[in-house]
Design a protein that fits this description.
Layout (H helix, E strand, L loop, with lengths): L1 H17 L33 E3 L6 E3 L4 E3 L2 E3 L2 H8 L1
Antiparallel strand pairs: 1-2, 3-4
The structure holds zinc ion (ZN).
Length: about 90
């Protein structure tokens, strides 16, 4: 039993190291090194491709975190969501 827990912990740590993420991420800690290198950059461009979704109404591709999810469908703006629901 303990062996499986150990293996799971090793796999978890290895995965975090391989993906380049800190083991214990801090949220916007100003004391962390490198936090002030780019003070006004809301979109980190070196984190790889961001998930894009397609607006069901107009077909525009928008970042998932900026899109609006209604049921199973994505929309680029509230107006298109409202038009599609009408
Ligand atoms: Zn749209």
């Amino acid at each position: 039993m303990m062996r499986w827990l150990l293996i799971a912990a090793i796999v978890f740590i290895a995965w975090r190291l391989l993906t380049g993420r800190p083991l214990f991420p801090r949220h916007d800690d100003p004391a962390s090194p490198g936090a002030n290198d780019r003070p006004s950059d809301p979109q980190p461009s070196d984190k790889g491709a961001e998930a894009m979704v397609r607006c069901k109404h107009c077909g525009t591709h928008v970042p998932a975190r900026k899109a609006i999810l209604e049921g199973d469908d994505w929309y680029c703006c509230p107006e298109h969501r409202d038009d599609a629901c009408r």
